[in-house]
Amino acid sequence: MDPYDGRVVINFIRQALNNEPLTVYGEGKQTRSLCYVSDLIRGINLTMESDFHEPINLGNPDELTILDIAREVIALIPGTTSKIVFQPMPPDDPRVRCPDITRAKGKCWGGARVVSRRDGLGKDDRLLSGHPVPEDGVDR
After folding, report:
1. pLDDT in tens, 73-111
2. Residue 79 — left, alpha, or beta (φ > 0 → left; ψ -120 to 50 → alpha)?
3. From the centroid of its chain, how far is CA 124?
4. Do residues 36 and 58 touch, judged by C-beta distance below 8 A?
């Protein structure tokens, strides 16, 4: 994943690994739900193997705030000196991002996570080693 693609989790990880401030917009009360890629792939596979042929949402319906995500990332990275800084909320920043997986749970996917959020964040070896992300985003 490109460490400069603008996604909240990778932004926070990159900032914390480089001991930069973690940028939280507004008060950080906007919510996100995070789903580890292997859980999503499992859901896609189960959907393809089912007899259900209508649109569904897959993902993790558990919401947490952007501020909570920033705090978790800081707690996971040993030795980081990063602090959280608040910036004005951009007008296009969604207040809530949470999939409604009701249909998927009932038709083809139990929605049970196999990988917890904390375990998923810790799967990046750079988090555990404190290895900084290079300025150009390319690991060598």
Report:
1. 999 888 999 999 999 999 888 888 888 888 887 777 765
2. left
3. 12
4. no
